[in-house]
Amino acid sequence: MHSSLAITTSGTPLGLAAVKFWTRSKFKGTAAIKRLVNQTRVPIETKESYRWLENLRQSIALMGSPDRCVHVGDRESDIYELFCLAQDLGTRFLERNPIMLHRSPQRRSSFGILRV
Predict the structure, then answer these.
(1) Which residue ranges form the domains of the chain, and what is each CATH number?
(2) How far is CA 6 from the centre of its chain?
């Protein structure tokens, strides 16, 4: 299940804005193909990651106002087509990235450095 949770600015959950059920059996054998095919040449609609784009569209349709939405994704959401779609639809997207940034003399996460 791939879901999108709607929350208020104070953090109160409102419910699911989008849900996508899928199984990997549909994509069985794609690991072998990845070694033979340049993934940048495969249309996004045929990839498992397309669920991110579908949920973005579905969430915006439900909320009705893309400029009031801020979508947050994990590192799996690092998809060029997703960022382009968010920009085209007039909404905002933030990717949560747990990668550590090494800065002397402290070690801090990118979240600790990001200011909204």
Answers:
(1) 2-113 (3.90.350.10)
(2) 14
